[in-house]
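ingest -> validate -> predict -> emit
validate: passed (alphabet ok, no gaps, 706 aa)
predict: started
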Amino acid sequence: MNREEARKKAEELVSQMTLSEMASQLRYDSPAIPRLGIPEYNWWNEGLHGFARSGTATGFPQAIGLGATFDPDLLDDIGDVISTEARAKYNEYSKHEDRDIYKGLTIWSPNVNLFRDPRWGRGQETYGEDPYLIARLAVKFIHGLQEGKSPKADDPHMKTAACAKHFAVHSGPEADRHHFDVEVSRKDLFETYLPQFEACVKEAGVESVMGAYNRYAGEPCCANSYLMGDVLFARWGFEGHFLSDCWAIRDFHENHKVTSDPVESAALALEQGCDLNCGCTYLSIDQGLKEGKIKEEYVKRSAIKLFTTRFLLGLFGENEYDSIPYEKVECAEHLAVAKKACEESIVMLKNDGILPIDRSKIKTIGVIGPNADSRAALEGNYFGTSSEYITPLAGLIHGAEGIRILYSEGADLFKNKPDNLARPFNRISEAVTVAEHSDMVILCLGLDATIEGEEGDTGNQFASGDKVDLSLPESQRVLIDAVIKTGTPFVVLMMTGSAMDMRFAEENASAILQCWYPGPRGGDTIADIIYGKVNPSGKLPVTIYKRVDDIPDFCDYSMKGRTYRYIEKEPLYPFGFGLGYSKTKVGSAYVASRDEDKITISVKASNTGSYDAREILQAYIRTDSGYETLNARLCAFKPVMINAGSTADLMIEIPLTAFATVDNEGERIVDAASADLFIGFGQPDKRTAELYGSEAVTIKGIPVKE
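emit:
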């Protein structure tokens, strides 16, 4: 069903409603209107990395881990799995007249905010710190959610409705989000904070956009005349529906103080084009209509937009997705996609040769740490329920095949004294004993979504969900020091949703695996990598800084000194970096062809190792424009396979839009004469070359205009 047809049906249906009935449909928990045959519908559903909060579903690595895959086609597959399971569940729930929260087809994902600061607890929900990477992954994910792969019809309905959030300029601090006013330059706005949203709207046709809690330039983001009116609706031509973050409209009068009461807040949001209220402020619309403070035309406009979405989804009659059976939930095919995602998400940051494990030398492995056997560290936030959980400890035991596994939790995740009657750090002696009796140690460290996440999580001393700094909790630092002192070689498994201070691991560990929150069965994949059954291939979607002092104040939204594009100090591990068990290298690259849309680069790459290697071919650009970013920026990437001991001829396409830069007024212009391209398996920076052992190939002086 096309949008024009759906809108006509929506207009006809809405025309039969009273104003009060229209108003009732602008809430996330829209009630039934029996006389018109309209069932109740709850718009609030989550699907960030699996259909969430709705019982059993296939679970994937947290979004930041999906960012580490650099694999848009995989994100398409994941979106398709989520939409299939959402439909399968919706079909059954509807049969039982269960239309509760988390059981509908409007999925409030993806989160395409830019992860500008590693202290932000919700950064784990994003695809990383680069707007180009975020956009490429989000566009495919949205396609999988909204179109899927099957079944098809001559005039297909929308499979599920995706939502790009949180619009815009939103990335912490969590504790301040209800009253914070963000000020950024127009250059930063259009170069960093908006490109991924534009791609979601103009390329992916995302059906909904969610506003952020904070203000931008003095106006709340859920009623922002510039962001919504000038940019989203006028410039980008967005035709879907706009919704508020949850209880964000209440912040207008309670925290932002731009209105005096709920009626004024509802009136402001509706006037600026916020169609759906996640919260309760729109309960005051009836009062506002009676008092003449809310215009009828705005209520009707929003109701029509919302019912257009419901008709596009086929919610008022039979559609081609009604036949998706419940048996598709967590089926073998979907679990295989989750397994692949986990394999591609884990980033190996260091390896002195200890991995993969040499079974002829290693007979006893000590598995130590608070995340070794933690279900929470598998999940991240916004998760569903799995029928099976495989922690790193369980995975290592499953794959041991004659190797003895010794285990010690060693420390609580963050409490120094988890046992009230014992002394502080009372679990250290067991950890030391296990390390002393082992040939090597797998040290499982990190956080989980209870201490890193959204406002209200355990979080720091303010319970904001953000991190105070990049250090691990003291309980884990004491454990680390104790293991180091034993002299037993150790591998660090870092299970977090963000970058941490890992200087201790760089200096002392034999190997480091950044595992993120790998999903419910992630322990099996971690073990497969450690035992050598899987060659790690993830790349960092964020910069891992050496220390928190290397980044600006958390509340400063300027990009100066932030992310790989503007970093001024050498990082510990750069964006785009990740090792594998084979030695791969780009040997040469040249411009093979050019047309009106793109430049095609021919690349020769080699794999001198004994493992087939999945690599991420990366292209970075730096033009001679005066508006160029400080450092070369990602302009294309492509997952490739290079067989062991072979050389491969590869191609990568660079869109000509990469020549454009953003000026100080926020306009994307092409004023450069030439550009340099850098082709490799990481960034063209000194630190990447040092870690990887080879430099990116440079193609100099490519003319911007032929």
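The longest helix spans residues 72-95.
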